[in-house]
Specification:
2 domains, 8-stranded parallel β-sheet, 15 helices, single chain, Glutaconate Coenzyme A-transferase, about 450 residues
């Protein structure tokens, strides 16, 4: 670990004094999710009319940010996010938030090699322990790299931050320039979305694929939550966790004794993650729990580490797939709605794992205001970003089944994807596939008395 030399012995100052260090044209960094400061954020927002062209980097804002609320037209402050939360999505729609596209496991390299040193880094941390270390709590990510790259490093202490064990999951007082006292308010919570019947149908199929000793990476959403619920009661044994995001569903598996990590090759017995975001009971479970290991994204997200565990089962959501297997998981046309995150890197890591499997999951239909559309399409929505290319897709699951696309030709992929589509859209997809020469004529045969045609099964 590279230790950053502080400018001088750490000095305790007020949030207003810390905000006064910021000048027009500065770049600031708040880390991500639960590491984002609050009292400093309010103090810098109070200076909105004094400052111009101040830019912030962060990710997954867990609550409204004062600097954005104080400058609704973006005349003074600019917010750049590695991954959008629902709040950041709304601010992007308003034209005052911008996306930085990464593979999450590569972000450390961006700071080291492509960005100028950061003018001010401000991170919410737990008050220093007896060794002088401020623990990062349940958010590690790329925070150590931010420490290394900071011109000025400020920590905002909060007793609400749980003490979470991990690799390089903190900063020593000798590296810190300024300390401000936070408000000690409870951490922002993320409640699990409701589980639909379609979620349960997909989860039932996925749960049947998970073997004893599997090492799980599961994303956020109703379907992953349903998978966790089913696994809890499935009789599965000795599951492990090596994931990007730690969710309440995974914590419930741990508390039920289903997750032991006993068969992991990398960090046996440990629940490995880079950030946790959920409810207060989760944060309480993490606090000083020796089974937890919060690590940087270089360790959790790079395929060369993921693959070291056997039977890695990576389960992620997508919003649209085409007939050849491209997964568009982060945008709606040119509108950014989330981010790449770790989806691509976990798909690759799971595939490279001995006995590993990666699953891309989606409901067959999108329905809003009475309009129904197939999520499996001939062509992706214009502008949609391909998060995971067809060459990296392994298993695809909808409520109608699971298929494996690895090693399949284009005609075989097309037939497999159509089998997962909602029945109301299959005939149209079959016709489109034939008209665009994705399947040969020999696979397209007459089926109906009206002269219609379908792909032969």
């Amino acid at each position: 670990m590279t230790l950053r030399p502080a400018l001088a012995p750490a000095k305790k100052i007020s949030a207003a004094q810390a905000a006064s260090l910021v000048k027009s044209g500065y770049w600031l960094d708040y880390g991500g999710t639960l590491s984002q400061p609050d009292v400093f954020d309010k103090a810098i927002a109070a200076r909105v009319n004094e400052l111009f062209d101040v830019s912030f980097r962060s990710s997954l804002a867990a609550k409204p940010r004062a600097v954005l609320e104080a400058d609704p037209e973006g005349k003074h402050f600019h917010w750049f996010a590695w991954h959008f939360s629902a709040y950041e999505r709304k601010k992007a729609d308003a034209g005052i938030c911008y996306h930085l596209p990464p593979n999450l496991g590569e972000i450390n390299d961006y700071y080291r090699h492509y960005f100028a040193p950061i003018d001010v880094v401000v991170l919410k941390v737990r008050p220093a322990d007896t060794s002088g270390t401020f623990n990062f709590g349940p958010t590690n990510g790329w925070l150590r790299t931010l420490v290394e790259c900071a011109k000025i490093l400020i920590v905002e202490t909060s007793t609400a931050v749980p003490y979470v064990y991990g690799r390089e999951n903190g900063v020593h007082i000798a590296e810190v320039d300024y300390i401000i006292e936070g408000d000690n308010e409870p951490l922002a919570e993320l409640n699990s979305p409701p589980v639909s019947d379609v979620d349960r149908a997909i989860a039932l199929k996925l749960a049947g694929e998970v073997e004893d000793g599997a090492c799980l990476q599961i994303g956020i959403g109703g379907m992953p939550n349903a998978v966790c619920s089913l696994l809890r009661d499935s009789g599965a044994k000795d599951l492990g966790i090596h994931t990007e995001m730690l969710t309440d569903g995974l914590i419930e598996l741990y508390q039920a004794g289903v997750v032991t990590g006993a068969r992991k090759q990398l960090d046996p017995g440990k629940v490995v993650f880079t950030f946790a975001w959920g409810t207060q009971p989760m944060y309480d479970t993490l606090d000083r729990n020796p089974d937890m290991l919060c690590c940087g994204t270089e360790y959790t997200n790079l395929p060369q580490f993921i693959m070291q565990n056997d039977k890695v089962f990576s389960i992620n959501n997508t919003t649209q797939m085409d007939l050849q297997g491209q997964a568009a998981s982060e945008s709606d046309g040119h509108r950014q709605i989330s981010g790449t995150g770790g989806q691509l890197q976990y798909a690759r890591g799971a595939y490279a794992s001995k006995g590993g499997k990666s699953f891309m999951c989606l409901s067959s239909l999108f329905e809003r205001k009475g309009i129904r559309k197939s999520r499996i399409v001939l062509n992706l929505t214009p502008g949609n970003i391909v998060t995971t290319p067809r060459t990296d897709i392994m298993y695809v699951a909808t409520e109608y089944g699971i298929v494996n696309l690895k090693g399949k030709s284009i005609p075989e992929r097309v037939q497999a994807m159509i089998s997962l589509a909602h029945p109301d859209f299959r005939e149209t997809l079959e016709r489109q596939a034939f008209e665009n020469r994705l399947v040969p004529r020999s696979l397209y045969v007459a089926r109906s008395p009206e002269g219609g045609a379908r792909i032969a099964s």
